[in-house]
Amino acid sequence: METPRIVVVGGGAGGLELASRLGKRLGRRDKAQITLVDRDSTHIWKPLLHEVATGVLDQSLDETAYQGHGAQHGYDYQLGTLTGIDRTAREVELASLHDDDGNELLSERRLGYDYLVLALGSISNDFGTPGVADHCYFLDSASQAEAFRRAMLNTFLRYGDGEGSERPCLSIAIVGGGATGVELSAELLGATEMLKSYGYSGIGRDQLQVHLIEAAPRLLPALPARIGHAVHRQLEKMGIQIHLETKITQADAHGFNTADEQRIDADLTVWAAGVRGADVLANLGLSTAANNRIDVHQTLQSVDDERIFAIGDCAACPQGNDRMVPPRAQAAHQMADTLYGNLRAAIADKPLKLFHYRDLGSLISLSHFDAVGNLMTSATKGHLFIEGRLAKLFYVSLYRMHQRAIHGTFNTLLKVVVDRLNRVLRPNLKLH
Ligand SMILES: Cc1cc2nc3c(=O)[nH]c(=O)nc-3n(C[C@H](O)[C@H](O)[C@H](O)COP(=O)(O)OP(=O)(O)OC[C@H]3O[C@@H](n4cnc5c(N)ncnc54)[C@H](O)[C@@H]3O)c2cc1C
User: Fold this and answer.
1) Which domains does the chain have, with CATH numbers?
2) Which of 21, 35, 46, 276 to mutate to test the pocket of ligand 1 (most atoms within 8 A of CB)?
3) How far apart are CA 252 and CA 346, in angstroms?
4) CA 318 vs CA 120, 312, 323, 328, 338: distances in Å
5) Which of 83, 106, 120 to mutate to test the pocket of ligand 1 (most atoms within 8 A of CB)?
6) N or C: which end of the chain has fewer CB within 10 A?
7) This prediction's pTM
């Protein structure tokens, strides 16, 4: 029998964990040829992007280069952007590659597969709101987070020491009171303190105005109300201006207009309200649910093609009671786990297992100020509300679990040590 070819497109929270496990188990033993395709050459765990955006995390210290990682973990890596699938020939189509000056490096390519996994994640949904695409920053990728960080540093420079301005002088408005918006708003206050302590700017927290704008009646509408209310209280204490039930109708270079005819002026605007699948997902010839997510059975197979699977944010997977698996890192992680088993079963011609999402709880980090969340425990058979240091510990451990899945236990321990050393050796904020 020929060696089966498994192509995973998207090396994010779900795709990289899957490719690493498949590579170690099947690729290294020549039981399957594993190829990971990603449009970027490095991976960074997406829930950290608000830290990259504020400079609290230096991307260059934390990212994983796919090429080297693949060589160590038994999979091949191809730099490329998925543009289509030829299901008859069983090939994925990749866009041509260009250098920074626009010169073509590689023409359009095709890559054959026996099993294809789509793990392309999601992008922010601007709901077609005029001006948003042109004027707002997004946190969908490391390059977008980096673009925001540079703009933020420039804005702080422009305001100098803030003297002579009416307070507050610098204003940042974030649309979306979900995890991304909430965590970014808190992180901005932490970054402001650090910029001042390093002498980069004279602007203190009281001179920074952060607007957090949410269309729903409360923050974190997808999470239990108790977490939303606790986070609301904390953010208010920190001085963040929270606008609930506020719908944005237009964005421009200086802020937002709202449906109730308010004006929110801002030096920088960020859009983090809701997610949808990228447009390419709607053009693959596969059935999609609302927001461009690929319709899959609970086996994670596309409803149209048993050799194509989808996991993570780009999959619309039923979980009973007319509900869908939510677009979250823990769902991507669990799906990668189930699909690892299902791909091995498919190769061995054995029945596939159904995916059952287990909500293990939710944790929200409010920079160094606090963390709030809940854990699902079998002891209490429900939510256990936690905050403070304990919540922070569990929050950090989620990332360590991801690192363990892609680097192994020993290397993750080494990374913990290196991170601690860096805290002593390097500034706590990326300043360049
Ligand atoms: C700031 C922020 C904070 C978050 N916090 C949390 C949190 O606290 N808890 C939580 O559970 N979730 C959180 N999330 C959501 C979480 O990050 C996602 O649910 C998770 O990353 C989804 O994993 P994924 O594998 O589906 O996609 P991703 O991790 O987004 O990976 C997708 C990959 O596909 C690649 N790709 C995309 N398009 C193409 C293409 N056409 N061709 C080739 N490659 C492509 C991308 O480069 C990327 O590497 C947060 C998200 C953000 C932005």
Assistant:
1) 5-122+277-347 (3.50.50.60), 126-274 (3.50.50.100), 361-425 (no CATH)
2) 46
3) 51
4) 18, 13, 6, 15, 15
5) 120
6) N
7) 0.94
